[in-house]
Design brief:
This protein is of the alpha/beta class and 322 residues long. It is built from eleven helices and eleven strands. Helix 2 packs across helix 9 (261-275) and helix 4 packs across helix 11.
Length: 322
Amino acid sequence: MFAFRRAVVAVATLLSTTATYAAWPDHPIVMVVPQPPGGAADAFARPFAQMLGQRLGQTVVVENRAGANGNIAAAYVARQQPADGYTIFFGSVSTLAVNPHLYKSPGFDPFKDFQPLTLTNQTPNVLVVNAAAPYKTVADVVAAAKAKPGTINFGSAGNGNTMHLTGVLFQARTGTSLTHVPYKGGPAALNDVLAGQIPMMFHNLNAVLAYEKAHKVRILAVADDKRAALLPGVPTMKEAGAPGVVQVPWSGMLVRSGTPQPVVDRLVREMAAILKSPEFRGKQEEQGTEVLSSTPAEFESRLKSDYNAMGALIKAGNVSLD
C-alpha cells in the first residue's frame, strides 16, 4: 500500500510539474549579449532572438551589457537573474574559458553558475596582413621574425583575448618572437592594419572577409584544421607550415544553473530547429560564420576542453591583463 501511495504521489508531482511549465513562457525573454550593439555578436544574436521568439510565442529582447571582456554580462545573469529560463546568456569562449584564468574575481563560475543549452556558431581566427606588407605567406612572416626577433608587431583587441592568444600560440608553434600591440577592441587594431600602422594581426574571419575581397588586406592562413568554405584557396596554418596553430572562437546559449528541466528541454529543442534551418544558416554562412548545433552535454564537453587548453596556453605564455 505504501509503495502504491508513493507511486501515486510521484505521478501527481510529474503531472503538476508538466502543467506548471506547459504555459512557459508567459512573458518576454531577455537575451543578454556581452558585446556592444552593432558588432558581430549582434549580427548573430538579433536574428536568432527574433526566430526564437516566433517559435516560443513570446518576444525575445536582446540586451547588450558590454564591459570587462564579458564578465559584467556573465555576472549579471549568474548572480542577479533567477533560474527560470527568462534570461538567456549568449556566452563565448573568451568569457567562459579564458576570463576565469585572467581575472582573480570574474564574478561567476562557468561550470557552477551556467547550464549550457547549445553551441551556436564559430569563426576561425586568421592571420591577416596589410596589402602593402612584404609578407605573402606564413613562411615569409616566420623567416622575417626569426631573422629579427621582436621587430614585427601584431595587433589584437587587447591582452588575453583570443586574437592575442592566437598570436601567443603562433609564436610557440613556430619558434618566433613577435611584439604584441594591444588595442581597445578588434576594430581599432584592424584600422591600424588597414592604415599600415602595424603590419598584421590575428582576427576573426568574418571581420576581415570584406577587406580581403576589396584587396585591402591579405589573409595568409586560417587557424583551423580545415579550410574556410568562403576562402578555399587560403591554406590552414598546418598547410602553411605552422602546425598546431588552431584557434576557432565559438559562442553558445546558456541559462542559469537550476533552470527547470522542462524549460531547458524546450529551449534546446527550439534553438536546434533554428540552427538547422536553411533560412537562418544561409545568411550567417554568407558572412563567414559557421553555424553549429549541439546537445547540452556536447557544449559542456567543449567548454571544459577549451577551459583547460586556454588555461595552459595563458600560463605557458605568461599572459596577464597588465
